[in-house]
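Field: sequence (string)
Field: structure_tokens (string)

Example rows 1 and 2, in order.
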Amino acid sequence: MKPGKRVPLCMLLAMFLLAGSAPAQTIHQVAAGENTLLNAIDAAAEGDIIELTDSGGVYTYNGSDKMYITKTLTIRAAEGLAVKPVIRNVTPGAGSPRIFEIRQGGNLFLKDLDLDGRAEEGGAA
């Protein structure tokens, strides 16, 4: 075999190995509102990014006293927002001000967000 033919074969092999090495991350863009973040968490796959798009937007959830994280996720503010998005627990009678509970297999990375554990406006955080 000529030396010039080995290089392309090695390059093809390297490209083949790298192509299947990492799953694709999906970025879920989410507008402020009730349960929009919770729905995005439920729909996201392992390693996905949830991007909150409203400057100063309030992302509330109602129904459970906290959101359960059972996979690796990143929740971040979209680039260039003037005011950080706020994640707030508005569940009436919530047993605790916790917003997230990380369960087995879960990892959560947060970036440029404000967290508010009050169950109601003016309540204790």
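Row 2 begins here:
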Amino acid sequence: MMCRGKGQQKGARSGVDQGGRSGSCNLRRWAVLVMMAVYAMWPCSGVVLSWPGVRLSPSEIPQGDPALIRVELKQGETPHVWWMEREVYLVRGGQTRWYGVLGVDLKTKPGTYPLVVKVSPGPAETKLDVTVVAKDRG
């Protein structure tokens, strides 16, 4: 996934930092890294979903809360994840691990929602069920 501003051509330099990334890309990258750090210190261990190498923490996501997803693959493989009809931005955490943050809107009804994971190169794709639970906001 390339991070470019709307209408910005590939290789354009306006609004791009020294590393060649746009400001919005850096913001998303920092947001994911901060969430990874927070969940690394979180007391819950997460759950391995039914497809090998996919871990979600927490295992059930309360309305309005985030969840950390970790995908572990073979070297050279790249995951693409879709949640709530949006692609999840993932960052590499080593040679074989990828991390991202799933967000649940406050208005999302409790229930089971599909998480789609596709691995490239190759045709491997699966749908996993993720549970959204009600949260009392007082």
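free_text_note (row 2): Residues 12-17, 39-45 have pLDDT under 50 and may be disordered.
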